[in-house]
Amino acid sequence: MSYVIAISNEKGGVAKTTTALSLGAALAELGRKILLVDLDPQANLTLALGFQPGSLEHTALDILLDSAPLLDPCRETNVAGVDLIPANSGIENAEQVLPVYINYTTRLQTAIQAVDPLPYDLILMDCPPSLGAVTINALTASDLLIIPTQAEYFSAYALRDMMSIVRQVRSEDNPNLAYRILITMLDQRNRTHRNIHEQLDRTFGDGLFKTLIEIDTKLRESPILGLPITQYKPNSRGALQYRSLAEELMQYVEQK
Amino acid sequence: MSYVIAISNEKGGVAKTTTALSLGAALAELGRKILLVDLDPQANLTLALGFQPGSLEHTALDILLDSAPLLDPCRETNVAGVDLIPANSGIENAEQVLPVYINYTTRLQTAIQAVDPLPYDLILMDCPPSLGAVTINALTASDLLIIPTQAEYFSAYALRDMMSIVRQVRSEDNPNLAYRILITMLDQRNRTHRNIHEQLDRTFGDGLFKTLIEIDTKLRESPILGLPITQYKPNSRGALQYRSLAEELMQYVEQK
Ligand SMILES: Nc1ncnc2c1ncn2[C@@H]1O[C@H](COP(=O)(O)OP(=O)(O)OP(=O)(O)O)[C@@H](O)[C@H]1O
Ligand SMILES: Nc1ncnc2c1ncn2[C@@H]1O[C@H](COP(=O)(O)OP(=O)(O)OP(=O)(O)O)[C@@H](O)[C@H]1O
Ligand SMILES: [Mg+2]
Ligand SMILES: [Mg+2]
């Protein structure tokens, strides 16, 4: 059985894509077989792995709208142990078309369950910055929702909508959906960051990963070369912190 | 006649909301009468002006779906010369419902043109981080699209989709739509930021505002108090840079 993770936050620019890429690569270093799924019309995860989204014919859209088998659009990447179901801008159409299908929220879940056994230990899905039909599909198919969050006012406020979407998905199709909040892009020297981080710690307690991802400009550079941080700068702060996140996640998954 | 501006970028977290709020307040300081419109289900612009989005009954959704008159949901704010049409999380429904209306892309344009004369010099619309039905409505109703952009790889790549949506809206309902790119959250000490800023300058030339908005943590603090930067820290770098943006914009608008 594969463990399925959605990486989602309605708030934009909180490191959803950076987390999907870096965490996926760090989990592969631990010997796990990883499937990344790009569900964002921006196709940043696809781009960060060195693909040209505009030139791809088969993407996650085939699975969402045409019921293509999950692994049809799947491709190997330049990261050992990591495969990708890519995206391109066509995914935007799914937001308008999916709701006309009956049971549209379970299309991804059905596609994942239809492949038995699935040759992956973990599936990580990068979601767009919205709570539309595509994100609902990902949450319905997931065991765990990881919510990357900046320690800033708008980002902290977005957790309110994220908690209500978790309640909604649990009451409809996926009662066992768990969540974990990941603090990203933290600048320990910044007073607002420190204050809001403390507030999130008090409010969410165990709902927060212990691992913190701090600001590291090497994380901005690595997608330019089509490499995850673990290969671009293996000893950078970003690489070390995403490795410790991978270890913390595996402890959480294995105790479940 | 009011001059209508959409503030949009598919890329998340590039300071769309911060620009709508700060630029709106700086234009009011120049004596202009400003209407801000929050079109994002995150309702960050509404929140940053001190409102509780969850408690509002009348929002921009009334205009988009129920053809309410433009000024029905309009409210005064604690910023002299700035009124607001607020949002709450219900706006997310518009993404799925709007496309079933005939001519759904011109609903906002029709609502704005129906009020004559409109008591505002400029209308600024804060868009969600997507290119769905709501953003298309805003672009169709606009004279100018301002595209806040970070000098980072994913953000620069998003300009490709932004240019194609501008071409699409010009060919369908709004042939005169102009655009201007605004560099935001710039860290002049950061090599990636400097490199990508230079590339954008070479590629877009006059398509870029001359004014640059640099990193200023005071811009993160001001929404916590429900105040724009021009009132929270009037002499901060952020306040000064958004004031010079307001002046550059008015020179552009008046020469048109
Ligand atoms: N820890 C970090 N330190 C510095 N920069 C970072 C860090 N994490 C991410 N970034 C940069 O911040 C920007 C936002 O990150 P990213 O694009 O991954 O966020 P996102 O949540 O996927 O955005 P969107 O909502 O548009 O999908 C990117 O330019 C990325 O390179
Ligand atoms: N110049 C700046 N310096 C420092 N922080 C900034 C600056 N501009 C914006 N910010 C902060 O960066 C974050 C992202 O900005 P903002 O929320 O305005 O972007 P957005 O494009 O509206 O995001 P979304 O895509 O989620 O709507 C916010 O926490 C904001 O306070
Ligand atoms: Mg992303
Ligand atoms: Mg915003």
N-to-C SSE string of chain A, H for helix and E for strand:
EHEHHEEHHEHEHEHHHH
> What is the number of helices of chain A?
11
Assembly type of the shown chains?
homodimer
Overall pLDDT confidence of chain A = 97
Question: What hetero molecules are bound to the protein chains?
Answer: adenosine-5'-triphosphate, magnesium ion
Q: How much helix, percentage-wise, in residues of chain A?
A: 40-55%
- Please list the strands of the largest sheet of chain A in the order they lie side by side: 3-4-2-5-1-6-7
Q: How many E strands of chain A? A: 7
Poorly predicted regions of chain A are: none
Structural class of chain A: alpha/beta
Main interface by residue count: A-B, 38 and 38 residues
Shape of chain A: globular
**Distance separating the two termini of chain A:** 13 Å
Can you describe this structure?
The structure is a homodimer of 256-residue chains. Chain A has eleven helices and seven strands. Chain A is of the alpha/beta class. In chain A, strands 3-4-2-5-1-6-7 form a seven-stranded mixed sheet, with helices on both faces. The first copy, chain A, is globular and about 50 Å long. Chain A binds chain B through residues 10-14, 17, 41-42, 44, 47-48, 89, 92, 95-96, 99, 128-133, 150, 152-154, 157-158, 161, 164, 190-192, 217, 220-221, 223-224, and chain B through 10-14, 17, 41-42, 44, 47-48, 89, 92, 95-96, 99, 128-133, 150, 152-154, 157-158, 161, 164, 190-192, 217, 220-221, 223-224. Bound molecules: adenosine-5'-triphosphate (ATP) (2 copies) and magnesium ion (2 copies). One adenosine-5'-triphosphate (ATP) sits between chains A (12-18, 40, 42, 44, 129, 184-185, 213, 215-217, 219-220, 238) and B (11-13, 129, 152, 154-155). One adenosine-5'-triphosphate sits between chains A (12-18, 40, 42, 44, 129, 184-185, 213, 215-217, 219-220, 238) and B (11-13, 129, 152, 154-155).
